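Milestone 3.1: sequence recovery, worked example.
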């Protein structure tokens, strides 16, 4: 028997049913958040903890083969780029799938958002707050559950050093780059597609779970043919493309210049066209073997990107829709194609959905919920969602304190940032141009304030955080890519 330190906590939900009385929501966030279920090593027989103590159900290999599962994450991909001529391959895929029109991330930062996707928890519970934090082993990921159930698991990740080397290897038997090797900081979409297809279309095997991560629409942006064509006689700071460093250093100027913003959008859209081709190549059926026909495919992103809206660029530290809204499309081999779901869903719903689709028991205490029923045309509960952000300009110490937050409540979004509260009707004002007068929304403010306070109070702080030691050359590369200032 392996021994380890592990204490399960009953997690406060990330999302509440909208019909739930405030008292009940508070009870879930407050009281339950602090009642912990102690679990001594003696009580844990298996090497893999399951918070419910429910053993993982092994796949019955004598029975019908479960569907494979493929999760595609396009880092920094804005949901509003779909369906406007830039993404023919993804649009064709969406027409065969269920499109979730109102999906949001828990935080517009790569590592914590991915942590939510894999654990079903918000940053206040999984503890990853920054790029550079490591997802602690005590987190049980959906991948670990599927692997233990008998899935063959593989990750093809363009940002190996940021992701698989920082705790996101958990549950994967195969990694595109060795966890402890000197992997490139960023692999191109072509490389990732080739690696993933070699494996997916390889010899017959157990049902698989594959995670394919593209970084092509994250800065730096190259001047590809599309962007060059759009450039015209523009000769500004983005004329030859944009590194993260350029965007960080010139964000004020770019975001206040219509010409720079037009060029930035052209660069971003050029990258979107490129990654769309990769998705098309990835999803081409395997030669001579209809493997993908029998595969559940999920396409999403970890967060979006500001391209000059609100006079801001990039995504870290943002609560605007351009940063928090994400695409979420799920194609299931036996589901009716062409469905849409308009209920609000979140990135932390992905982990329980994966576990559910893999036929496994969802551990108790996750903040996300399975949205699998929506793929089969059923309605799912409308819920309130919370997203968080680091404080811009805060030092490390302050950053681990209470975060700025956004609450999604029906068609309203309440943003608390630097002590200021703003409310938007995002159904009718998706660009968040005109805040609703707070004097007309006292009830909404009070309700969201209570939820925000409870979210902050339920924060486990640094319990599961292990700060990764970054070497100086990695820090330089991260700076060049715009991850750190
Ligand atoms: Zn990201």
């Amino acid at each position: 028997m392996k021994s380890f330190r592990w204490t399960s906590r009953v997690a406060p939900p990330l999302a509440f049913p909208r019909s739930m009385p405030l008292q009940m929501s508070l009870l879930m966030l407050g009281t339950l958040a602090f009642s912990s279920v102690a679990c001594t090593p003696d009580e844990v027989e298996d090497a893999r903890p399951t918070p419910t103590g429910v053993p993982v159900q092994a796949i019955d290999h004598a029975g019908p083969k479960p569907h494979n599962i493929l999760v595609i994450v396009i880092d920094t991909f804005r949901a509003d780029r779909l369906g406007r001529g830039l993404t023919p391959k993804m649009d064709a895929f969406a027409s065969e799938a269920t499109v979730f029109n109102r999906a949001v991330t828990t935080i517009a930062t790569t590592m914590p958002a991915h942590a939510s996707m894999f654990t079903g928890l918000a940053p206040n519970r999984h503890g990853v707050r920054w790029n550079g934090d490591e997802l602690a082993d005590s987190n049980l990921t959906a991948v670990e559950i599927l692997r233990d159930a008998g899935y063959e698991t593989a990750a093809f990740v363009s940002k190996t050093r940021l992701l698989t080397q920082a705790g996101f290897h958990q549950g994967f038997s195969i990694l595109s780059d060795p966890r402890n090797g000197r992997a490139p900081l960023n692999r191109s979409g072509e490389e990732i597609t080739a690696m993933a297809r070699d494996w997916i279309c390889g010899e017959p095997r157990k049902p698989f779970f594959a995670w394919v991560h593209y970084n092509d629409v994250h800065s730096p942006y190259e001047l590809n043919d599309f962007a060059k064509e759009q450039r015209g006689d523009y000769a500004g700071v983005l004329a030859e493309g944009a590194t993260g460093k350029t965007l960080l250093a010139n964000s004020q100027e770019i975001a206040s210049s219509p010409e720079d913003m037009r060029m930035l959008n052209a660069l971003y859209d050029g990258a979107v066209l490129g990654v769309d081709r990769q998705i098309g190549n990835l999803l081409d059926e395997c030669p001579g073997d209809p493997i993908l026909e029998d595969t559940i495919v999920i396409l999403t992103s970890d967060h979006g990107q500001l391209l000059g809206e609100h006079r801001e660029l990039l995504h870290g530290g943002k609560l605007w829709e351009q940063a928090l809204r994400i695409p979420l499309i799920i194609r299931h081999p036996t589901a009716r194609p062409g469905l849409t779901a308009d209920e609000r869903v979140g990135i932390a719903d992905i982990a329980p959905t994966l576990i559910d689709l893999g036929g496994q028991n969802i551990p108790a205490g996750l903040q996300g919920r399975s949205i699998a029923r929506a793929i089969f045309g059923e309605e799912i509960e409308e819920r309130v969602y919370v997203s968080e952000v680091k404080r811009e300009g805060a030092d490390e110490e302050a950053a681990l304190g209470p975060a700025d937050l956004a609450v999604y409540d029906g068609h309203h979004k309440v943003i608390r940032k630097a002590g200021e509260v703003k409310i938007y009707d995002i159904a009718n004002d998706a660009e968040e141009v005109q805040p609703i007068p707070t004097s007309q929304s006292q009830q909404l403010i009070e309700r969201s304030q209570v939820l925000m306070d409870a979210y902050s109070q339920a924060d486990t702080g640094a319990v599961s955080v292990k700060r990764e030691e970054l070497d100086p050359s990695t820090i330089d590369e991260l700076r060049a890519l715009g991850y750190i200032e």
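Residues 258-283 form the longest helix (26 residues). The first strand starts at residue 8 and ends at 9.
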